[in-house]
């Protein structure tokens, strides 16, 4: 039996070609989805789609597609990138690959809208960070057609969904920036852009009401906090201390506790906070001739109760007269 000799160079070239095609296809697919829905991802396509990744990638090349090598200092992040949280472990993996093989796949970028000679990334932020960590000074980018801020966000959002979706916290940060910068006016606009719903957008944005320590904790394992359990964590924060909240979040990260369990915790904490703790009085027993004849009780709220049995009419009359004089009671 004979075996065909393994051609390492041919295999590497094939792999490189496949990786480049995958990036082109992902961007082209995102471009096709966004272009077919100019009114937003929540709306139907303008016409029945005959999209294929291959044809869209070819169109990308025809409308731009020029690959250049530029200084990293000239390449700026997409200000409306759908992803804001980057995992250090993934960056280090890319650093190892870059040191061993160099940059195999170009990032995608547009000419910077306000800085001549500079560029703005659309896809490839992980690669840029890895190159910087590796001490490199240049990056290969493929230029694609320019567009609007909302267009860049949509492309980033869809491209990530097709590869490795951004987290709920990523969405919260990105959506707040869209609102703050006036790219969109209200939650419904974001829902239309992303194909979600206004209530989901509202729940997501409420994450940013959490204490800074809780947001930092969430950034360490964003994949553990989906829309449902993130919402429960946000609701829970209203009824527990910050330290207690962080303990619960640790459990979410380490034990992967369910949304149902979080909902029970929140309901229990809410019930406990809503119920007033029973106030206990301080009681002083009153005795006479070795026998109990009553008690004097006081509460921190200021309430005072005197219960006493006085069989001697003169003694009873004296006590009543003293109390009436003290409180200014007159018949």
TrEMBL record:
Keyword Nucleotide-binding set for record: no
Domain of life: Bacteria
One GO MF term: DNA binding
GO cellular component, one term: chromosome
UniProt family annotation: Belongs to the ParB family.
GO biological process entries: chromosome segregation
Pfam families, per the entry: HTH_ParB, ParB_N
Domain (ParB-like N-terminal): residue spans on this chain: 68-161
Keyword tags: Chromosome partition
Listed name of the protein: ParB family protein
Organism: Paenacidovorax caeni
